Amino acid sequence: MRDIEVPSETLQTLLDRNGITHIDAFLVDCEGADWIVFEQLDLKRYRPGMIKVEVGALPAAEIGQVVVKLKTSGYQVGFQAEDIWAFA
């Protein structure tokens, strides 16, 4: 096995580069990196109507951070299996 370098960019850079100004639904399933991606989403700017974050592979502290970010942004939050669902 060998290491390889791959290019990466922030979520905001990706959205800006592609001219995305509105998000209807935001779904995150990044195999344990879900909080790293979700914490970058500017909820005030994009205000998705529906959000799903897979949290099955996240530590409890990061699950709590997801819930706090959603609730403090005015979302209704629910849990189903390994997912957090939120609605504006």
Features:
4 helices; alpha+beta; Translation Initiation Factor IF3; 88 residues
Helix fraction by DSSP (H/I, runs of at least 4): 25-40%
Low-confidence region ranges? none
- The total domain count is 1
Which architecture name does CATH use? 2-Layer Sandwich
Biggest sheet layout: 4 strands, mixed
SS content category = alpha+beta
pLDDT averaged residue by residue: 96
CATH topology: Translation Initiation Factor IF3
Kindly provide the radius of gyration, computed on alpha-carbon positions and rounded to a whole number of angstroms. 14 Å
Describe the structure in your own words.
The protein has helices at 11-17, 34-38, 43-46, 60-72, and strands at residues 25-28, 50-54, 76-80, 83-87. By secondary structure, the protein is of the alpha+beta class. The chain has a single domain (22-87), classed as 2-Layer Sandwich (Translation Initiation Factor IF3), CATH 3.30.110. A four-stranded mixed sheet has the order 1-2-4-3. Strand 3 (76-80) and strand 4 (83-87) form a beta hairpin. The model has no long low-confidence stretch (mean pLDDT 96).
